[in-house]
Amino acid sequence: MIACTLYDKLWNAHTIRVYDDGTTLLYIDEHFIHEVTSPQAFGLLSREGLDVHDGRSTVAMPDHNVPTDAMRRRRVWPCGQVARLHSNCEKHCIRCSPVHGRRQGIVHVAGPEQGATLPSGSVACGDSHTSTHGALGALAQGIGTSDVANILLARSIRQKRNRSLLISLEGRLRPGCCAKDVALHMASMVGAGGGAGYCMELGGGSMGRMPLEGRMSVCNMSIEAGARFSLSGADNPMLNYMHARVAHRHCHRAPCKMPMDAASDALAQHSRMVAMRADRIEPQITWGTAPYMSSSVRGRVPDPMAIPDPRYRSEAEAALDYMSLEPGMPLACLGVDFVFIGSCTNARAEDIRMAARVVSILGGRVHRRIRGAIVVPGSMASKAQLEREGVGGILTRAGFEWREPGCSMCIAMNSDQLAYRERCVSTSNRSFECRQGPMSRTHLASPATAALAAITGSVCDASSLAWT
Ligand SMILES: CC(C)[C@H](C(=O)O)[C@@H](O)C(=O)O
Ligand code: SF4
After folding, report:
1. Which has the closest alpha carbon to 383: 355, 408, 402?
2. Are the beta carbons of 447 and 352 closer than 8 angstroms?
3. Using an 8 Å Cβ cutoff, are 167 and 202 in contact?
4. Where is the signal peptide (predicted)?
5. Does residue 256 carry a pLDDT above 70?
């Protein structure tokens, strides 16, 4: 028998048909939609006089532009794209977690949390961070709007098979370092487009010890290195995570069984491998306008003149200009105006607990130079859980704002925006120009680094805290 990668196994299991041009028609088990990329797809179907094939295989979540301010949310919502999502779902019998419902959340946080992601299944969503669900052993991918329409219509998508890139992590992470530091380090090693055409598979002992939520953060950011898919093989932590959630599965199908061979065969050949040592990864922060422009918090802003590749050199020059940073400046001690703890990368309960832990270790309150420090849980369920545990209280007593779930300042599609030229430490995944508001300056980092920045008013090394 030929040794197969997990990607190949899942791909083969979902293949409906292979065409002469080498493309494959893949079957999609689970389809998620949100308010931003679904209206065009519903519009396309209705213009063509077509109907949704089976609304029950789709789950809808309003997340991108819902206000996270409780008052604002109560007063005027649902409206705009969210109201259209609600009405499209009603019309086509699609389960929707309404904006005021207890199942609402960011689709990549609330979906897996509610057991809607099928391990060994195929998942698609009109959102590039759908790779997150690969942490549960699902063949999960972000798709474009026309594919959203195709899946609503025929539960299938036609595409080319990718290659497999093994991201191997061995050793133990230092105290104060977490999956987000791994993800940023991975992005800097692989480069902006280095993962294009690959499915990233997480491997190595350290990935195996990483909690499922951490693996989701790493899979979430594979697209930032160009990889549309990322995957983690089945193991006991994954099975335990799923079993704890299938009871809450809000789905018409029976709870899934995950085969334990849902992993790459021992002798499987990956097309490429990137090896990382966990014990050498320090807390990371981005200095530029892309996730791959990251370095250790204890490092210095790089000198573009020292970058041999002319394309990367000019990108670095433009980024430093936009971020108002000088080559050689130490990153630690950089003054910060705003802190955002949220997004589908880092708004799970574990992430927010880590932020609260920093606050408890340090004591004190949000620094007076910080204009705002907001914590936006990724789902109603994690928000309620954190409130029961007293985590919400720790953060609000320290001066953080405790918001309602949504994408919020990750994408600034509502009033959660930075002011002109403000500098923010953010736990999200993208830092391009104006992502968090006009001329906003974003430094991506872990929840620990973000909480530390809120209390000290500047970028600091989270591994220097007394974690034990
Ligand atoms: C709005 C949506 C299409 C987009 C994505 O696909 O990723 C958004 O979620 C983002 O993070 O930029
Ligand atoms: S939280 Fe950010 S990255 Fe995630 S889906 Fe929303 S906008 Fe996209």
Report:
1. 402
2. yes
3. yes
4. none
5. no
ipTM of the complex: 0.99
Per-residue confidence at 259, pLDDT binned at 50, 70, 90? low
Give the bridge partners for 340, in sequence order.
Answer: 374, 426
Q: What is the 3-state secondary structure (H, E, C) of 175-213?
A: CCCCHHHHHHHHHHHHCCCCCCCEEEEEECHHHHHCCHH
Pocket test for ligand 2, best of 428, 435, 436 (most atoms within 8 A of CB): 428
Which residues on adjacent β-strands are paired with residue 372? 338
Task: State the first-to-last Cα distance of the chain, in angstroms, to the nearest integer.
Answer: 48
> How many angstroms does the Cα of residue 34 sit away from the middle of ligand 1?
10
Residue-wise pLDDT for 223-235, tens only, equals: 999 999 999 999 9
For residue 411, which ligand has an atom nearest its CA? 2
d(CA 234, CA 462): 31
Q: Are 132 and 112 in contact (CB under 8 A)?
A: yes
Domain around 155: 6-246
Q: How far is it, in rounded angstroms, from Cα 30 to Cα 65? A: 23
> 259 in a domain, yes or no?
no
> Do the Cβ atoms of 371 and 335 come closer than 8 Å?
no
Looking at the structure, tell me whether residues 289 and 236 fall in a common domain. Answer: no
Are both 328 and 392 inside the same structural domain? yes
Q: Is the CB–ligand 1 distance for residue 215 below 6 Å? A: no
CA of 106 to the centre of ligand 2 (A): 7
Residue 262 lies in a domain: no
For ligand 1, whether the C-beta of 36 sits within 6 Å is yes
Same domain, 206 and 311: no
Instruction: With respect to residue 441, please indicate whether it lies within any of the assigned structural domains.
Output: yes
Q: What is the domain count for the chain? A: 2
Query: Residues 6 or more apart from 433 whose CB is under 8 A from it?
Result: 289, 322, 439
- The answer, yes or no, to whether any atom of ligand 1 lies below 6 A from the CB of 403, is no
- Residue owning tokens 């698609």: 124
Task: Establish if 388 belongs to a structural domain.
Answer: yes
Residues 169 and 226 in one domain: yes
Q: Quick one: three-class SS letters along 217-260?
A: HHHHHHHHHCCCEEEECCCHHHHHHHHHHHCCCCCCCCCCCCCC
Pocket lined around ligand 2, Cβ cut-off 6 Å? 63-64, 106, 127, 129, 343-344, 407, 410-411, 428-429
pLDDT tens, residue by residue, 357-391 = 999 999 999 999 999 999 999 999 999 999 999 99
